[in-house]
Amino acid sequence: MARVTVFGAGNVGATCAHVLAQRDMCDVTMIDVVEGMPQGKALDMRQSGPLQDFGVEVAGSNDYAACAVSDVIVVTAGLARKPGMDRMELLQKNVGIVAGISKAIREHAPKSVIVMVTNPLDVMAFVAKKVTGFPRERVVGMAGVLDSARFRAFIAMELGMSVVDVSAMVLGGHGDSMVPLPRYATVNGVPITELMDAAAIARLSDRTRKGGAEIVNLLKTGSAYYAPGTSAAQMCEAILKNRRHLLPCSVELNGEYGLRDVFCGVPVVLGHGGMQKVVELKLSAAELAELGKSAEGVRKGQEEVRPFLT
Ligand code: TXD
Prior knowledge:
- It is built from 9 helices and 14 strands.
- By secondary structure, it is α/β, with parallel strands linked by helices.
- The strands form 4 sheets. It has a 6-stranded parallel β-sheet with strand order 3-2-1-4-5-6, with helices on both faces. The chain has a 3-stranded antiparallel β-sheet with strand order 7-10-11, covered by helices on one side.
């Protein structure tokens, strides 16, 4: 049985672990610094097995070494964004946590694929890649899957149509500078440009960009976790089952889209071994400029954390 380890058994981590268990796809280990918490949540999840028809093993631990023999490692450990707090403000606090976890991954699970979730997501993926020394294929960031799911949900809500028929793609860094691509959004193959006017598309794109903040402002004590946890689980499934889904993920670019040595959300084929291919879409000059701007923000973050990584 394949195994996924989730670092951080908080809201996003525990949701991701539970979705994975519900899909009966792999054994799951949650690791957290809070004593007893991952163990308690693991036991609770196992007890939902008989009701939800899954029998995989779910375990909890406070020991980083418990990530050994994992095929995929999801990193959600860190601090969540508070209302009014920018993702970049989280950077300093989370970089130490993610670097420590990355060292443990390098030591105990050197062949795993890392799915980074901790914010600021693209910069934390850079930290994990630098510290582990993994090839870029094995460090992918979760943001685009979530941002695209939000865009899909807003499109379906606007049109009063089934969300499962809606497909959409959001690229760029995970932040207010993300790049929704409405011209690639369809409802069962029908471009949304045929179904709503430009003003509605602009409104939904904007709501998508601010989708995380909208939920933070409502919850007041934390950030979103159902859709983020499920998005990370979706990426694990693509990797474990070699589904080769075309998904927007944050990966280190190597000249694609005219960008190099910077993590950025772009469409990739996700399957065994992680990122199998970066797919280069023909973007308009304006879209390309937006993507470049978004990537520059990430590059600034990468430069800020570099001194902490020596
Ligand atoms: O799209 C995305 N990438 C995101 C990212 C969407 C939603 C949330 N996003 C970020 O994920 C968020 O900004 C945070 O940086 C992480 C985790 O969010 P979550 O909402 O799950 O935060 P919690 O509930 O506070 O959980 C974090 C857990 C908590 O249980 C801590 O005890 C634990 O992380 N933690 C640690 N675990 C292991 N090791 C260390 N060092 C550690 N430090 C804290």
